């Protein structure tokens, strides 16, 4: 399963595209695909996992041009 996500932050929006890892739909990995404002042109990686049915933890590492 693939998700395209947008994180609205104080300085702009960070865009990502992530997918589930293997058959474990509770773990995610993907890439930072860009953004707006201060995040325009951002690249990087994103990982995450479900903590509970309603909560997910993400780690986003990005670089700016």
Care to give the gist of this entry?
With 65 residues, the chain is mainly β. 0% of the residues lie in helices and 71% in strands. The chain has one domain (2-63).
What low-confidence regions span 5 or more consecutive residues with pLDDT below 50?
A: none
**Order of SSEs:** EEEEE
* Overall number of strands: 5
Assembly state: single chain
Q: How many helices does DSSP assign? A: 0
The structural class is mainly beta
Overall mean pLDDT: 94
Radius of gyration: 12 Å
Q: Tell me the domain tally.
A: 1
Question: What does the main sheet amount to?
Answer: 5 strands, antiparallel
> Numbering strands along the chain, what is their spatial order in the largest sheet?
1-2-3-4-5
Please tag this protein with its features.
mainly beta; 5-stranded antiparallel sheet; elongated; 65 residues
Q: Explain this structure to me?
A:
The protein is mainly beta and 65 residues long. The protein has one domain. Helices cover 0% and strands 71% of the residues. It is built from no helices and five strands. The protein has strands spanning 2-9, 12-21, 24-35, 43-50, 56-63. A five-stranded antiparallel beta sheet has the order 1-2-3-4-5, with no helix packed on it. A hairpin with a 7-residue loop joins strand 3 (24-35) and strand 4. The protein starts with a strand and ends with a strand.
């Amino acid at each position: 399963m693939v998700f395209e996500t947008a994180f609205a932050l104080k300085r702009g929006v960070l865009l990502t595209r992530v997918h589930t890892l293997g058959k474990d739909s509770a773990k995610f990995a993907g890439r930072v695909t860009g953004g707006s404002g201060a995040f325009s042109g951002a690249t990087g990686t994103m990982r995450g996992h479900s903590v509970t049915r309603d909560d997910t933890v993400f780690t986003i590492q990005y670089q700016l041009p």
